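On clarity, I found the account of how folds are encoded harder to follow than it need be. Since the whole study asks how a given chain folds, the encoding of that fold should be made plain. For the editor and my fellow referees, an illustration may be useful. An entry of this sort, consisting of the sequence and the corresponding backbone structure tokens, reads as follows:

:::
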Amino acid sequence: MQEILSGIIFGIGVSVPIGPVNILIMSYALKSYKKAFFLGLGAMGADALYLTLLSFGVLKFFNSPTGFKILAVFGAIFLTYMAILILKNSKSNIKMQKTDSFSLFGIFAKGFLINLSNPYVIAFWLSSAAVLSYMGGNFILTLFGLITGIFLWIGLFPLVIFKARKVIGEKIANLFSYISAFILIFFSIILIFRTFWET
């Protein structure tokens, strides 16, 4: 039980920091809880894939300078693409968005690709594997707790934003869309800068 609780705390801890995924979850949650939730599920799916690959030692190539650069370029392009989509849809009315048809699989795929194309996610899970092993006890139970913690965050975080959307109002929601888009572009620039120019 202690391993599960430690894993849950660790999972919530790694999910809270503001990054591209949480920025997009907030942006989607202002219009649709399902969109935000499935985006988070997609990102969690990428985490699960990386954890699986890590256990088989497949991540060694992507942790190399060449693999890191390939993922960084792809990640920066995809983040910029997502920012453009947010700017394009920023003036969409929140109430109208509720009735729009959208593919939940497509939203899931976006979240999956954002985490999959972020080389820092690989670096994070490589370091986290050491943290999990140092926790001791049953590794499987700790891992289960970790996944549960992440799932709790992607379920509750967008729900709070979605419930507060009426208080936020249309103008503030649109403003937040612009801010979200520019933050994503900032993340993409930083990703390229740190990968190719920072010494």
User: Anything to note?
Assistant: Confidence is low (pLDDT under 50) at residues 93-101.
